[in-house]
Specification:
transmembrane helix, membrane, mainly alpha, 1 helix, about 95% helix, transmembrane, about 240 residues
């Protein structure tokens, strides 16, 4: 098997590699150095120098005028007739229909609606007047006003009675409480207070003044003199 591989497979493999290398060399020689430069030259010659300028010339001087003419023809043959048909078959009849039929009908409907609303408002106002206002006025005239007058009379009478009671209570309090208190104050409290003040002045204030003037001040003066003589400074005044 090894001999078969060496005799058959290896030469075939070498032959295949030789074919591959030869193909690569031929592709490089034929494509990179011959065909590609020729194609690029043909592209530049045919496309850049002939077809592109020819296309621009055709677009500018042939196709663009044809498109402009087609647009003008389309406008004249389609747009203008359609506009004419729309104007005179739809717009003008619609305007006439609106002005002559629809607007008067709508105005009549609005007028009828306003009249119905006004009539309904008047009917509702009359119903409210009959069912609400008139009964309330009758109740106010027959019930509320007399009751209010009676309440006002009762309140005035109650205020007068309360004022009379307050005056009577004031008179009673003045007779029972205020006058006795005034009499007691004038007859008892004031004389007793004056007597107590006199007794206090005679029994306490006058003896205290006499003791202070007769004993306390001389003793304090003597103490200050002794302190000054012994310590050379005046004693604190008592």
């Amino acid at each position: 098997m090894l001999l078969v591989a060496l005799v058959v497979v290896v030469p075939l493999r070498l032959l295949w590699e030789l074919v591959v290398v030869t193909g690569r060399v031929l592709r490089m020689l034929l494509w990179n150095w011959l065909a590609r430069p020729l194609l690029l030259g043909l592209k530049r010659l045919v496309w850049d120098w002939f077809l592109a300028p020819l296309g621009r010339l055709l677009w500018r001087w042939v196709l663009w005028p044809l498109l402009a003419a087609a647009r003008v023809l389309l406008h004249l043959l389609v747009v203008v007739p359609v506009r004419f048909l729309v104007t005179y078959l739809l717009v003008v009849p619609g305007r006439w229909l609106w002005q002559q039929v629809l607007r008067p009908v709508l105005q009549a409907l609005l007028a009828a609606a306003r009249f119905a609303l006004r009539l309904t408002g008047r009917v509702v106002a009359q119903v409210l007047w009959v069912l609400v206002v008139c009964p309330l006025r009758w109740v106010g005239r027959v019930v509320v006003v007399p009751v209010g007058r009676a309440v006002a009379v009762a309140v005035r009478f109650a205020l007068r009675v309360a004022a009379a009671i307050c005056r009577g209570v004031g008179i009673v309090l003045r007779i029972v409480l205020v006058r006795p208190v005034v009499v007691v104050w004038r007859a008892v409290v004031v004389p007793v207070a004056r007597a107590v003040a006199v007794v206090w002045g005679l029994a306490v204030v006058a003896p205290a003044r006499w003791v202070r003037r007769t004993f306390w001040l001389p003793v304090a003066q003597a103490t200050r003199e002794v302190t000054r003589a012994l310590f050379g400074r005046p004693a604190r005044r008592q």
